From TrEMBL:
Residues 80-100 are annotated as: Disordered. This is Heterokaryon incompatibility domain-containing protein. Pfam families: HET (PF06985). InterPro entries: HET. It comes from the Eukaryota. Residues 20-83 form the Heterokaryon incompatibility domain.
Length: 100
């Protein structure tokens, strides 16, 4: 599972993820995607969806969450197996903290 590190805004991969918050948002044009966040911030911060990630990270960090999960950039949409597996993991996981 990939999570966004709120202080660094970099993706980190976990087999057993730490506690994290979920950023729920409405998709719009020009979202920041998985392939974007694999690159340095200065290469994707101009995208319209970047403000959601930046503001969500600040909010999560101020509430004590070091990691957030965002569907638009934490899932590799090119991998149907990854999408399927993450879909199954979205059940009752006590480490997930919705409500940002």
């Amino acid at each position: 599972m990939r999570l966004v590190n709120t202080p660094t805004l970099e993706l980190e991969f976990f087999i057993k993820p730490p506690p994290y918050a979920i950023l729920s948002h409405r998709w719009t044009e020009d979202e920041v995607l998985f392939e974007d966040v694999e690159r340095p911030l200065f290469e994707w911060r101009h995208k319209a969806g970047a403000s959601k990630i930046l503001q969500g990270s600040v909010t999560a960090l101020t509430r004590g969450h070091r990691y957030i999960w965002i569907d638009s950039c934490c899932i590799d949409k090119k991998s149907s197996a990854e999408e399927d597996e993450l879909g199954r993991q979205e059940g009752d996981d006590p480490r997930r903290r919705p409500g940002l």
